[in-house]
Amino acid sequence: LTQNVLKSYLETCAQRTEELQRRRWETFSSQEVCAYQRQSMAEMWQRCAGRLTEAIQQVVEFAKRLQGFMDLCQHDQIVLLKAGALEVVLVGMCRAFNADNRTVFFEGKYGGTELFRALGRAGDSGRGRGQAEGTASDEELLPGCHDLISSIFDFAQSLCALHCSDSEVAFLCALVLLNASRPWLQEQAKVAVLQGHLEVAFRLLLRRTQREELLARLPPAGRLRALCSQHLEQLQAFHRLHPGLLPAAFPPLYRELF
Amino acid sequence: QEKHRILHKLLQNGNS
Fold first, then answer.
1. How much helix, strand and coil, in percent to the nearest 5, is found in chain A?
2. Do A61 and B16 count as a contact with CB atoms less than 8 A apart?
3. Residues facing residue A192 across a β-bridge
């Protein structure tokens, strides 16, 4: 089972861990950051929804390869993916996060929270960050969005501090997905059995690698849930600001999940 | 079921 979890994860990762590590100091230039910040809020939301959807497609492929997942009824497969896909992406983000300069791998390079500033407000005219800050014209339209981005970065930072191996990240993702306490499951007992097997295998791995202390140091599951609700709240606030935006502006899978 | 058309399709497809 341990081999299956790791193999499933590695096969469905867009980037190899070594590659992400090797490139962890390749950051966006200030001009490139400005270009992201100059985008309109709607453009940046669509861009991020696109990248997130790509990551979620990989989570679906990961789930399909996990032992036992495809034996569940399709209703439960969908329940688990709807509830867990974003959480899995957030856990996996620690692999693509450089905790030393608080940047994340996004569209080919590493960038900090400022890269995503346009998500919370209209793009500025390209002036430097310092100049725009604190002025009346810099009033934020979705102030909660910056809190969401900071919270996501904080979460990645706290997970990075645990220095998880690929196997550990793979297990954390599998356990987020195969969670028998998700509401609306039709065959909860079946999911509970799979979850139980995963937990045993994970504990055995941690014992073997003398990493048993990891379990006590993991962020509480409520933190992931809170991030997902924050994302939904911001998406709803965005839709209220842009009521005329065509639904087709977001990828179909993103619309289906959120 | 119709509500989750894309997820259904992804789950039914072979490994892509």
1. 70, 5, 30
2. yes
3. none
Half-sphere exposure of A188 (CA within 13 A, CB side): 6
- Interface residue B9 vs chain A (CB under 8 A): no
Angle, alpha carbons A223-A56-A29 (nearest 5°): 85
β-bridge mates for residue A135, sequence order: none
- Which positions in chain A touch B3 (Cβ < 8 Å)? 256
Partners of residue A257 in chain B, C-beta under 8 Å: 7
Q: Strands A103-106 and A97-98: what pairing?
A: antiparallel
Query: Which 8-state DSSP code applies to residue A109?
Result: E
* Per-residue pLDDT tens over the stretch A122-161: 665 444 444 444 443 445 789 899 999 999 999 999 999 9
**CA triple A30-A34-A38, angle to 5 deg:** 175
Q: Which residues face A97 on adjacent strands?
A: A104
ipTM of the complex: 0.85
Report residue A134 as tokens: 């604190």
